[in-house]
């Protein structure tokens, strides 16, 4: 009986907000708003479906180990922290943004990023950054940060940053400009592979409702 309960891993904020309409399309409604509650386990209108609220970058871990049956994670997190071992049936087209290189306004990035040049890059995404610059033949010293990347070039920690940009307001407020597009990012449905088999009858209608809600 109990193995037919469902646990869904979500992060607070934009992913939670943009997931609500998809959950609603599958008939699932959280009984509490995680922004208002300190609870990390949120019940839903179904006695056997619950949400667990975790850090965005921890969603794949909860799902991989089966602590959650499925979750929603940004492509940035899946590339950088690993989507291996997870079934990824749908790109949900939510929490969309772009992975960009940004520099202080006026910095001559074209000259500084010629093949053979060396740049200091601050980022939360060292693997994505390393791969991008390796493909350009630019040498990089990568400085791993956990947040507020925009500060690094302003105080001389790095020449440039690799970070997510959506409106561009954060860059603008810090007198930075995006100079290169690395890739588009959106969030994906990630499902535990064992759960997909054992709980197929429960999971399949939810996956189908999500797909229908995004027009796929
Ligand atoms: O915040 P926390 O450190 O807990 O974790 P997180 O930043 O990984 O989580 P969260 O909830 O902020 O983001 C979850 C997911 O949303 C990310 O993994 C991305 O896939 C996606 N997403 C979409 C974004 C953005 N847009 C975004 N704009 N994640 C972060 N940002 C940040 C960006 O890093 C920058 O600091 O917002 C700032 C830029 O925004 P604009 O609108 O000023 O350009
Ligand atoms: Mg954040």
TrEMBL record:
Keywords: Amino-acid biosynthesis, ATP-binding, Cytoplasm, Glycosyltransferase, Histidine biosynthesis, Nucleotide-binding, Transferase. Gene3D superfamilies: Periplasmic binding protein-like II (3.40.190.10). GO terms for biological process: L-histidine biosynthetic process. SUPFAM superfamilies: Periplasmic binding protein-like II. Catalyzes the condensation of ATP and 5-phosphoribose 1-diphosphate to form N'-(5'-phosphoribosyl)-ATP (PR-ATP). Has a crucial role in the pathway because the rate of histidine biosynthesis seems to be controlled primarily by regulation of HisG enzymatic activity. Lacks the C-terminal regulatory region which is replaced by HisZ. This is ATP phosphoribosyltransferase. It comes from Neisseria elongata subsp. glycolytica ATCC 29315.
């Amino acid at each position: 009986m109990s193995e037919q309960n469902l646990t869904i891993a979500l992060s607070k904020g934009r992913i939670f907000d943009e997931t609500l309409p998809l959950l609603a399309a599958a008939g699932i409604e959280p009984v509490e708003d995680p922004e208002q509650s300190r609870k990390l386990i949120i019940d839903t209108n179904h006695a056997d479906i619950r949400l667990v609220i975790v850090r965005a970058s921890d969603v794949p871990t909860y799902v991989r180990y089966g602590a959650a049956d499925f979750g929603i994670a940004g492509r940035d997190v899946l590339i950088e922290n690993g989507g291996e071992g997870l079934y990824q049936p749908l790109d949900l087209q939510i929490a969309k943004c772009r992975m960009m290189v940004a520099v202080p306004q006026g910095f001559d990035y074209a000259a500084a990023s010629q093949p053979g040049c060396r740049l200091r890059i601050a980022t939360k995404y060292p693997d994505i950054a390393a791969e991008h610059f390796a493909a350009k033949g630019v040498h990089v010293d990568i400085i791993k940060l956990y947040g507020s990347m925009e500060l690094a070039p302003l105080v001389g920690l790095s020449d440039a940053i690799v970070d997510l940009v959506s409106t561009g307001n954060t860059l603008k407020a810090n007198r930075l400009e995006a100079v290169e597009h690395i890739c588009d990012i959106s969030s994906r449905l990630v499902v535990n592979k064992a759960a997909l088999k054992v709980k197929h009858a429960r999971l399949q209608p939810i996956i189908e409702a999500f797909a229908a809600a995004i027009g796929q």
